[in-house]
Amino acid sequence: MNNDNYIEERIQKALDIVENATEISDEQLAELDADKDLLQDCRDLHSMKMMSRQQNARIDVEKEYEAFERRHLPKRRHRMAIWWGMAAAAAAAFIGFIFMQKTPETATEQPLMVYEADAQLEPITITKKSGKKMTVKATEQQQEYTPAIEEMEIEDVLTVDVPKGGSYTVNLPDGSRVHLYADSRLVFPTRFAGDERAVRLEGEAYFVVAKDSDHPFIVNTPSMQTMVLGTEFNVRAYGEATDQVTLISGSVMVNKNQYHAKLNPGEQAAIKSNGALSIAQVDTEQYTSWRDGYFYFDNVRLQDIMRAVGRNFNMSVEFRDTSLLDYKIHFVADRTSGIETVVSTLNRMKKIHVQQEGNKIVVY
Q: Residue 138 CA to chain centroid, in angstroms?
């Protein structure tokens, strides 16, 4: 088979996998495991689909597909319309696919609880400085809140608590938007006064900051500080080893005690064991996808994925086979599709076993 035919056949396979992800066969999973080019094709098609789903996004679909085709079919660009039509159909049906990347280490004997759920799904709570509260029912569908500034005291401060199992979007008084992930808290004033626009975060949030060169926007967390003028970035600050700042666009300055780092788009600052900051290039799709209602993990440890799943559904996660903790997985799924879909997708690998036991997810 010549190279062009091979590439064309591989892309056809990728389209078939993405279009029929809910019915992916064991043979197709094995082929993904063995053929990294095929897996990359699937990722590219999924990325195009994710971009097309983003609300308010200004995306030139034909331009994106031309870029895809240049990478894969440089001699067959005239087929763009045919391929894109098939890719668009695939996008509507895609839910997720995964494959194992690394062999596990030796298992320990004792099970390990990597995430603890709350006893019940709590409401989203918005608290004023006076202590007066309002509640919003937490759901898997992201909701939105814009403070009625005219009803607030001039010096008022609001605290938004998003429980495990919930997500929420807050529109700040300067026009910035904050997408809050489950188990997160945001504290901000009803009016930004002075030279800075400062907020406090515990948990994870995706920020879309309104530009204002005269008033830097500052995100304070228990572990670090991030300063920007106008940009998009993701902050994770659960007090875990994975605390980090990931820049999507623009530029930010990250401060951790005496350590300082300026990030470029696609870079991530994380705290090292000695307290210093490490900078690395990352795939930013993981951080834009959760905002849009998807899990997206590219070569990520199983324990980190399962923590995110547990946090999203307010379910405890226990590893009874701790050799699986450091398995690295490529995994994409709809966060709103329910825990049953996520468990079923994981089990289809047949290299691990995941079971729901009441409000607990068990990994064997």
A: 19
CB 317 within 8 A of CB 109: no
Total Cβ atoms within 10 A of residue 62 = 11
- How many C-beta atoms surround the C-beta of residue 30 within 10 A? 11
Please name which of 195, 274, 295, 291 lies closest in space to residue 235, comparing C-alpha atoms: 291
Cα–Cα distance list, 277 to 240, 243, 339 (Å):
15, 11, 35
Q: What is the DSSP-derived secondary structure letter of residue 107?
A: P
290-336 per-position pLDDT tens digit? 988 888 888 889 999 999 999 999 999 999 999 999 988 888 888 88
Q: Give 182's contacts (C-beta < 8 A, 6+ positions apart).
A: 162, 163, 164, 165, 166, 167, 203, 311, 312, 314
pTM higher than 0.90: no
Q: How far apart are CA 321 and CA 109, in angstroms?
A: 8
| E-only strand ranges, 116-196 | 124-128, 133-136, 143-145, 157-162, 168-171, 177-180, 184-189
> How much is the CA Rg of the chain, to the nearest whole Å?
22
User: DSSP string spanning 298-312?
Assistant: EEEEHHHHHHHHHHH
pLDDT digits (tens, 9 = 90+) for 21-72: 656 777 777 777 778 777 777 766 665 555 454 444 444 444 444 554 554 4
Beta bridge partners of 284: none
Give pairs for 234-237: CB < 8 Å, separation 24+.
234/204, 234/205, 234/206, 234/207, 234/284, 234/287, 234/288, 235/201, 235/204, 235/205, 235/207, 236/203, 236/204, 237/201, 237/202, 237/203, 237/204
Please give the Cα distance from 343 to 353 (Å, whole number): 9
Please choose, from the candidates 10, 18, 100, the residue with its C-alpha nearest in 3D space to the C-alpha of residue 348: 100
